[in-house]
Amino acid sequence: MAVSSDIAKKVITGTNGDDYIDGTAGDDIIRGLDGADFVFGGDGNDDISGANGDDYLEGGKGNDRLFGGAGDDFLDGGTGNDALYGGSGSDYGAGGAGDDRIFGDRGNDSLSGGDGKDTVHGGTGDDLLDGDAGDDLVYGDDGHDSLSGGDGKDTLYGGIGNDFIDGDKGDDQLHGEAGNDALDGGAGNDLLSGGAGNDDLGGGIGNDRLSGGDGSDWLSGGAGADVLDGGAGAGDWLDYGGSAAGVRVNLATSKVSGGDAQGDTIRGFENVAGSEQADVLIGDAGRNVLHGGDGNDTLTGGAGADIFDFVPILQQDGLDHVTDFNSASGDRLALHLPSPGGIYQVQAQQVGDDVLVTIAFGNGSDPLNVAMLDDIRVSDLGDAWYI
Question: For residue 375, what are the contacts with CB-CB under 8 A and spacing of at least 6?
């Protein structure tokens, strides 16, 4: 059924079939009822309801309200300060130009604010949410959501679930909240808070503030003078793997320098991952895990039963030195070796005052150098010095 009217202050009601309704100019109240309806509000401040069915609702110019209802609906606010309500179903909502409010409700929704200062709520379900241009508020709510701020100074909340949050351009605030979340600040001076769960935080370009919160978190500030706080819970990682130059990290003194670490302030970390260059990584009095990466790194665990972490197949460029390895105190080399079906042998040989650790394979290839343990004898290693 097709319904069209151009009388101001119209109330238009469709049928329980598939309707085409054009409100044209004026402030309209349009109810599509059941069926897969195509509804165009036209100019004016319109109130459009799709009800049941997979509906296409377009507000046009004006400050409109669109209600998708049941079904997988497409809602386009158009120009103006609009309010979009997806209802049940997996809906698509686009605010368009203006300061819009968009609510996905139930279902796996795709929502975009468009230009303006928008507020976007995913509701329940695994949603794709984009604030787009402007200073936006984006809420993932329940579900495993993907949030993007777009341009502008945005504030994003993951809510419950394992969320991915991208600040994109601008000075943004990203809050993972509950769940194991991944946060990327992007360009700008951003604030990232992981909240509860095991979170992965990347500051990106700019002078960022990162806080892991509860759980075992992984924090990388990137370029810029960043403030990084691992937060409560053991097992937090400070990651400089993306630095183009070597870094020096001392967990005992909370001092860092060089490469991406230059100008950073750190606290609350147990573990460190270095760059692909020559790094100096120093632990504290507790149990630390130190991973040098490629390059000729110097690793010092300090007091405590420390883990020196290696992936020999991927770390063939350089030889790391471990300055204070003490198997009797609980220190161990963590060797991420090939699959259990592979044939290999971990070897330790005396080289002057030090011990060279290598891996020999059964295919006749040259052994891989793993690490040099300084000022120690092979006889001091014992039976369980690597894991």
Answer: 323, 353, 354
Q: How far apart are CA 368 and CA 346, in angstroms?
A: 10
Q: Is 9 exposed, middle or buried (0-12, 13-18, 19+ CB in 10 A)?
A: exposed
Q: What is the DSSP letter of 329?
A: G
Reported for 45-54, long-range contacts at CB under 8 A and 24+ positions apart, including other chains, are 45/80, 48/23, 50/87, 53/18, 54/89
Kindly report the backbone phi and psi dihedral angles of residue 328, in degrees, each rounded to the nearest multiple of 5, phi listed first. Answer: -65, -25
Domain ranges of the chain: 234-387
The three-state secondary structure class of 300 is strand
The 10 Å Cβ neighbour count of residue 340 is 5
Q: pLDDT tens across 327-376, in order?
A: 999 999 999 886 655 678 899 999 999 999 999 887 667 888 999 999 99
Strands in 221-327 per DSSP E? 227-229, 237-239, 248-250, 255-257, 265-267, 271-273, 280-282, 289-291, 298-300, 307-310, 320-322
CA distances from residue 55 to 58, 79, 141, 377 in whole angstroms, order as listed: 10, 20, 24, 76
- For residue 46, with 0-12 CB atoms within 10 Å meaning exposed, 13-18 middle and 19 or more buried, which class applies? buried
Q: Which residues contact 198 (CB under 8 A, 6 or more apart)?
A: 180, 215, 216, 217
Q: Rg of the chain over CA atoms, in angstroms?
A: 28
Task: Of 95, 159, 136, give the one whose Cα is nearest residue 148.
Answer: 136
pTM across the whole model: 0.90
Q: State both tokens at 368.
A: 């891989």
174, β-bridge pairs: 156, 192
CA distances from 123 to 43, 74, 109, 126, 141 (A): 29, 16, 9, 9, 5
Report the percentage of the chain scoring pLDDT > 90. Answer: 86
